[in-house]
Amino acid sequence: MHAPGSALPEILVAGVGLTPIGEHWEKSLRSIALEAMTAAVEDAGGLRPQALFVGNMLAPALSAQTHLGVLLADFAGWRGIEAATYEAAGASGGVALRQAVLALASGEMDRVMVVGVEKLTDRIGSSVEAALAAAADADFEAVQGLTPAAQAGLLMRRYIHEHHVPEHGFAGFSLTAHANAVGNPRALYRRAIRLEDYASAPMLSDPLNLFDAAPVADGAAAILLTRGDRHRPAGERTPIRILASAVATGPLALHDQPDPLGFEAALISAGRAMAQAGMAARDIDLFELHDVFSIYAALALESAGFAERGQGWRLAAEGEISRTGRIPISTLGGSKARGDAGGATGVYQAVEVVLQLQGRAGEAQVPEAQVGMGQCLGGAGATVATHILARADRL
User: Fold this and answer.
1) Which domains does the chain have, with CATH numbers?
2) pLDDT tens-digit profile of 162-175?
3) Which residues, 6 or more positions from 168, have their beta carbon under 8 angstroms from its beta carbon?
């Protein structure tokens, strides 16, 4: 039975697992991934997947490792299963999740594991910055020294100019994320900050300051999905269903985007997902957006229909994005305070939505959450993956 407006069969979450985000110098990429995968299998009552889809951005550049699918399948003891890696910069995990949904929807698979993993501490300094900059246009942006922070700074300056944002108008995004991370034991920064902290932070790329940018670190998150007509998750937890999955793309280079503040790919991706689920923005109880930079959070809120153009920053300034606000975001700290695990972000978001919908978010719980959306970005909104999940007993 399909949900209203949904083109998907019943795809359920059997189990989830994630690691704390941090500088895990003592752990390898494969061991971090295995930790999350093992936790997801245990959460699913020992269910073994038929396929493993990996989301990763930086392993070839920072860990000298390609072929992650077979590496991780072998390391988990799952030789013989189908395995592949998907790369779409910061949207890698979301794209891998999308492929898992399609595999299940096709009927080819009954049980699929998705793991997002990133290991940045294999390198330090400029090599990490160069790897991150590779998400932009190498010939016309990265070679000129344009970093992700510089891209965000350009967009933020234009946004402030066009929409007359007051000084420290974006502070609410950082304050909210850090306040939420206090209740997340796996977050990198579990400390609330004050407006004075934000106001005195050093500049990264004017007007973007240190608290407008997420810290990059190591981490892995995993989610095991099943077709509900072939396998029902065991246990007493309320099953969580993936109602919608959509990916859209736009120009890679910032200068090729006809409307850089429009986040067109985010608009398309969110629109497709909501149409697939038969829902509108007002039906979403929480939104795990990609707040790798504060400006991206504002643009994502606008593109998804939670705010009018140029008004996304007001939701943060007026407290509408808190756990008890109109549209809670970054509920376990988001990339800003939980930590930014690069290509693993989309899977972290999906897992965190599941924890919220099942009432397993602890001190960071959003009250009475029934439907959640996750959206991750590759580059400056060049690739956008959006997923909508809901409690199965709500449908």
Assistant:
1) 11-394 (3.40.47.10)
2) 999 999 999 999 99
3) 195, 198, 199
